[in-house]
Each structure stands twice: as structure tokens, then as C-alpha cells.
């Protein structure tokens, strides 16, 4: 095969003995910022704010470490309610979530927001039906959306082997001090401390971005005793007077400052299995965004591994490629479900957003030292041998072996899975499409390896069934 192997060019997979959990999670948190519509580094800034609040009220050791990771991963479940938001509010989920966080938290502000934002691009009758539904069932709708998000986030944190304190901190993110929060309507000290600090840090960062220092201070004071523990608000009021405190919000090196903070120096051995778990967990975040791509990353990983095995790649090489397959679509977290789930033809702007997702996948993975060597594969998985792919227009030998494998696996799964614009295709029809584009889009050896692997899989299933 003429294509170059990225894996062999790099001398194999990156050694993992110098990986740190805080840098790994912190770098991946930039992906969570995208799906929440927050400016780059939101989770990092929240971690910096909240960890200092925790230290100010006397947390130390493992308590502060649990808080640190709760803050970085508070939005782990954020993608799981995106499709439902689009469906209910007839709105772009990313913009909707971003803008909703900037209102003052009162019921009247929430109602004004719903009237202003629901169904702006829909027909009048659809918009009216959506608004009436929200008004009639608003409490239950909000509870379900938050419950889905927070419980899913806690489940993913568990998959990443984080403590119950971290899981509970994520699960309780939207609980309010006075019991008006969701999903459990917890009151006061029944709310996990990490949850209340994370929510406070979130509001501080968002309102500082929108309104500056005074706006952030004003907002948290208004919510003291309703959303937040008065003790936490008082602690922050003292803390924010520290010289240089507010300057750090614009520090381009804040991520490195956060990575060097003592609470992040958790002594954890990151072995190959743990790295696999983290890659798998973040693929769950991606696949949760749309029912049409549920489990897509896992299936693409299976097909990629099947092709790689047939081509004779080594066990370590295949393991490295599986991580690339799991994370190849992480850039889709920046794409609205109004586009991902649209049943009709995309317009030019929507198509541009889709075409940008491989580049965004590459940018996120480049930040993560453990995954930086798989970033080029994720960034080029929609390239074609004839140069007509995207985002770079690579052609021929410019496309690596691993990318060719992933491309065949990705397209095969897309064809055989249900999509908003068509039903799932039979396997034979999907393979015929791949064969028709051999040499122009797809590598012939990769397509042949997929066909052989599928036959072997079918034979194995037949044996078990017998």
C-alpha cells in the first residue's frame, strides 16, 4: 500500500508514562465548552475560580482534588439534552444554552427568554404550539432536560473512574440553595458542596464575560441565599479582592496555571487501559448528542479495528487506531443539532458547519498530549483519494493508511445506520457504494479488508447461533 502510516512515522504510539490526569481532562474540557456555546477555556476558568473558593473555605487534600475535577468536568453530560432542546424550543441548541445562562435567573426573565428565542425560524403556528407546550409543561420539561444532562454526566465520570464525590458534584450542578433547582429540588446543605461551588463558578465566569467584574459580583450577590450558599458568596467576595485576581481571566496561559495547581496533582497511574476508558467516555459525550449517531463512534471503532486486523496491523497499532476512531467526531460537539438532525438538504451555512467538524476535532485533540498523535487522523477522515474531500483537500499519498481505514469504516457505518434524511441501507447496498468509489474516494485494500472482516463476523455469528 502506497500510503504512509502515521503510526510508524511517529515511531509508534506515544509513551504514556509521563501523562498527567489533570492535563488530559483539562485539555478535553475545551470540547465541552464548544457544545455549551461558551468561550474557549470556560471550564478551565471555572476550575481556577472554584478551586480557590474551596481553598478559602478550608477544603484541602482529596476534598480539593475532587472539587478540581468536578469543575473541569461539570459539563460532561451537556450533549445529552441537545437534540431535545432543538425539538422543544425549535432553536439552535448551542446558542440557546449559551444565551439562557446569561439571563438573571428569575421566572420572569425565563419566560421572556422563551418568548424571545423559541421557534424564531419556524412558521407561526409551529412557534405558537411550541411556546404553549413549554408554558403548560415548563416545569416537567426543565426537570427532564436537567436530569438527563446531570445524570448522564455523572455516569460518564464514573466510567472515567472518578470518585463518588466527583460524580455527585456533577449530578447536582443545577440544584439551588433554596430548593428551587433541579432535578431533585435539594435544599441547603443537602446539595453537594462541589455542585454549589461549580454552579457559582459558572455564573461568575459567564457574567464576567458578558458584563465584566461588577456584573459578575452583582449577579452572585442577587442569587445569594437562593441559588448559592451565602457562605460561598461571602468567601468569593473576599477572594476577588486579591491583587491580580480578575487579570487571570484574560491570561492566555491560564490553562497551564490550572494544570500546575496542587489539587490537580492527583497521583494516578494512567496506563493503556485507563487511556482507553477516557477515550471511550468522551466518545460517549459525542454520540449522546444525536439519536441518529448513538453508538456511532463504537461501531466505527469496531469496523476500523476489523479492517486493521485484516491488513495485518500489530496489536499496539490497532489499539492506537481504536482511540482515533473513538474520538474522530469530537468536533461535532460544536455543531448544532438543528443541523445534525435536519431531515432536509443543508444550506450553504449549515454545510460549512458540517465541513468544519473534522478540523475542530483535530484542534481539540492537538491540545491533549495523549491524543495529539491521532489528531491528524481525526482531522482528515472526510478526505478523498481524488482530492475532493474536506477540510484540506488532501489526495493520494497525502492521506495516511490510518485515515483511509477510518474513512471506510466511518462511511460504511453512516450508510448502514438510520439518518434524519434517509433510512438505513442494507449492508450489500452500502458495500456496493463503497466499491463504486474505490480509487476516487476509498482505498481498495481497506474496502476489501472490510468485506473480508464482515464475512468472518457473519460466520462467527452463525456458529454462535447454531
Question: In summary, what is this structure?
Answer:
By secondary structure, the protein is mainly alpha-helical. The protein has two domains: 6-14 and 271-465, Hypothetical protein af1432, CATH 1.10.3210.10; 21-269, Hypothetical protein af1432 (Orthogonal Bundle). The chain has helices at 6-9, 21-35, 42-56, 61-72, 82-89, 93-100, 107-117, 124-159, 164-171, 193-222, 230-239, 254-259, 272-287, 296-310, 315-327, 337-340, 348-367, 375-379, 401-416, 427-436, 444-465.
Structural features, described:
With 466 residues, this protein is mostly helical. It has two domains: 6-14 and 271-465, Hypothetical protein af1432, CATH 1.10.3210; 21-269, Hypothetical protein af1432 (Orthogonal Bundle), CATH 1.10.3210. 61% of the residues lie in helices and 0% in strands. The mean pLDDT is 91.
> Gyration radius, to the nearest Å?
23 Å
Query: What structural category do the secondary elements indicate?
Result: mainly alpha
Count of DSSP strands? 0
**CATH classification, class level of the largest domain:** Mainly Alpha
Instruction: Tell me, rounded to a whole number, the average pLDDT.
Output: 91
- Largest beta-sheet characterization: none
- Element-by-element helix/strand order: HHHHHHHHHHHHHHHHHHHHH
* Strand proportion: under 5%
CATH architectural grouping of the largest domain: Orthogonal Bundle
| Tally of helical runs | 21
| N-end to C-end Cα span | 38 Å
Number of domains: 2
- CATH topology of the largest domain, what is it called? Hypothetical protein af1432
CATH superfamily of the largest domain: Hypothetical protein af1432
Q: Fraction of residues in helices?
A: 55-70%
Shape: globular
Q: Give the uncertain stretches in residue-range form.
A: none
Amino acid at each position: 500500500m502506497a500510503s504512509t502510516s502515521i503510526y510508524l512515522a511517529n515511531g509508534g504510539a506515544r509513551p504514556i508514562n509521563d501523562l498527567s490526569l489533570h492535563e488530559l481532562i483539562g485539555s478535553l474540557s475545551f470540547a465541552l465548552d464548544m457544545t455549551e456555546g461558551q468561550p474557549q477555556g470556560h471550564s478551565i476558568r471555572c476550575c481556577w475560580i472554584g478551586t480557590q473558593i474551596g481553598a478559602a473555605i478550608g477544603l484541602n487534600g482529596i476534598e480539593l482534588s475532587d472539587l478540581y475535577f468536578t469543575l473541569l468536568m461539570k459539563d460532561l453530560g451537556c450533549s445529552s439534552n441537545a437534540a431535545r432542546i432543538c425539538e422543544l424550543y425549535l432553536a439552535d441548541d448551542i446558542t440557546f444554552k449559551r444565551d439562557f445562562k446569561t439571563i438573571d435567573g428569575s421566572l420572569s426573565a425565563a419566560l421572556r427568554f422563551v418568548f424571545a428565542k423559541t421557534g424564531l425560524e419556524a412558521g407561526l403556528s409551529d412557534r405558537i404550539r411550541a411556546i404553549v407546550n413549554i408554558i403548560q409543561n415548563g416545569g416537567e420539561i426543565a426537570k427532564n432536560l436537567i436530569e438527563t444532562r446531570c445524570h448522564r454526566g455523572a455516569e460518564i465520570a464514573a466510567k472515567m473512574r472518578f470518585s463518588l464525590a466527583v460524580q455527585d458534584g456533577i449530578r447536582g450542578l443545577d440544584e439551588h440553595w433554596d430548593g428551587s433547582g433541579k432535578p431533585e429540588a435539594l435544599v441547603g446543605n443537602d446539595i453537594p458542596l462541589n455542585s454549589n461551588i461549580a454552579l457559582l463558578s459558572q455564573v461568575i465566569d459567564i457574567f464576567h464575560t458578558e458584563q465584566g467584574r461588577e456584573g459578575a459580583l452583582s449577579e452572585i450577590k442577587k442569587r445569594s441565599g437562593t441559588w448559592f450558599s451565602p457562605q460561598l458568596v461571602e468567601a468569593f467576595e473576599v477572594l476577588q479582592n486579591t491583587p491580580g485576581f480578575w487579570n487571570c481571566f484574560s491570561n492566555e496561559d491560564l490553562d497551564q496555571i490550572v494544570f500546575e495547581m496542587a489539587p490537580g496533582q492527583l497521583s494516578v497511574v494512567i496506563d493503556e487501559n485507563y487511556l482507553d476508558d477516557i477515550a471511550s467516555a468522551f466518545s460517549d459525550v459525542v454520540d449522546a448528542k444525536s439519536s441518529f449517531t448513538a453508538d456511532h463512534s463504537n461501531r466505527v471503532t469496531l469496523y476500523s479495528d476489523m479492517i486493521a486486523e485484516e491488513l495485518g496491523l500489530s496489536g499496539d497499532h490497532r489499539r492506537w487506531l481504536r482511540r482515533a476512531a473513538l474520538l474522530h467526531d469530537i468536533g461535532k460537539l460544536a455543531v448544532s443539532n438543528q443541523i445534525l438532525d435536519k431531515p432536509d438538504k443543508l444550506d450553504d451555512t449549515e454545510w460549512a458547519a458540517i465541513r468544519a467538524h473534522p478540523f475542530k476535532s483535530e484542534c481539540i485533540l492537538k491540545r491533549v498530549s495523549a491524543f495529539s498523535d491521532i489528531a491528524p487522523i481525526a482531522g482528515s477522515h472526510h478526505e478523498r483519494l481524488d482530492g475532493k474531500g474536506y477540510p484540506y483537500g488532501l489526495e493520494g499519498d497525502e492521506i495516511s493508511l490510518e485515515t483511509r481505514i477510518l474513512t471506510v469504516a466511518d462511511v460504511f457505518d453512516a450508510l448502514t445506520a438510520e439518518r434524519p434524511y434517509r433510512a438505513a441501507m442494507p449492508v450489500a447496498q452500502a458495500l456496493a457504494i463503497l466499491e463504486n468509489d474505490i480509487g476516487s474516494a476509498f482505498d481498495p485494500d481497506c474496502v476489501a479488508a472490510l468485506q473480508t472482516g464482515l464475512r468472518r463476523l457473519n460466520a462467527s455469528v452463525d456458529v454462535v447461533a447454531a
